[in-house]
Write a structure and sequence with these properties.
- The protein is α/β, with parallel strands linked by helices.
- It is about 35% helix and about 15% strand.
- It has one domain: Alpha/Beta hydrolase fold, catalytic domain (Rossmann fold, 3-Layer(aba) Sandwich), CATH 3.40.50.1820.
Length: about 220
């Protein structure tokens, strides 16, 4: 069965970004939609898709998220299905939290084949909340794919101080959003930044990075 996509942005965009959702919220959740729309306004073609367990929830099948590794083939198929729809040119893969983690596990295979140009992670789940020793970083030490990770400084899945101690590949660029939580949302009363401010900062940074790696 072909992957179903939500598409935003111009069909003639020079660069396409493929995004998967986090473990608990669908591809059309408010944060995913806001991100996709902002990237579309910045000139990207954005495609969102769902893993099977999440799509099944729309029909009343409440399955828990599987192990991230178990859905790697679904991400690879989504890339092939997106190409089959006529999407050509540079493709950046990634997603929110678990979606970005899954993309990171298949990125080097796809990058070595010339299928993708980069990896974009929004709030990478470096460890489960309150379990800082259960790291999900082993494969990130040798990652070859150009990677940009946006992380909020108060993300309970990996704070700035914690991430500074990890062995991460030189291919990975970290971009920190002040006071952002796991949805990258700041508290305006504390930080002075709004969600819209962070979205603008993020899209500007993605544009500069994507143009650099895809050229």
């Amino acid at each position: 069965m072909p992957t179903s996509f939500l598409l935003d942005g111009p069909a003639t965009a020079p660069i396409t970004i493929l995004l998967a959702h986090g473990a608990g919220a669908p591809m059309d959740s408010a944060p995913m939609t806001a991100t996709a729309k902002a990237l579309a306004v910045a000139g990207f073609r954005v495609a969102r898709f769902e893993f099977h367990y999440m799509a099944a929830r729309r029909y009343g099948h409440r399955k828990p998220p599987p192990r991230a590794e178990a859905v790697n083939p679904e991400y690879i198929k989504a890339i092939a299905d997106l190409r089959a729809k006529g999407v050509t040119g540079p493709l950046i893969v990634g997603g929110k939290s678990m979606g970005g983690r899954v993309a990171s596990m298949i990125a080097d295979e796809m990058f070595s084949r010339g299928e993708i140009s980069g990896l974009l992670c929004l709030a990478y789940p470096f460890h489960p909340p309150a379990k800082p020793t259960q790291l999900r970083t082993k494969h990130l030490a040798g990652l070859q794919t150009p990677t940009l990770i946006f992380q909020g400084t108060r993300d309970e899945f990996g704070t700035k101080d914690e991430v500074a101690t990890y062995d991460l590949s030189d291919s990975i660029e970290m971009f920190w959003l002040e006071d952002g939580d796991h949805d990258l949302k700041p508290r305006k009363s504390v930080s002075g930044f709004s969600t819209a401010d962070h979205l603008k900062t993020m899209t500007d940074a993605v544009k500069a990075w994507a143009n650099r790696i895809a050229s």
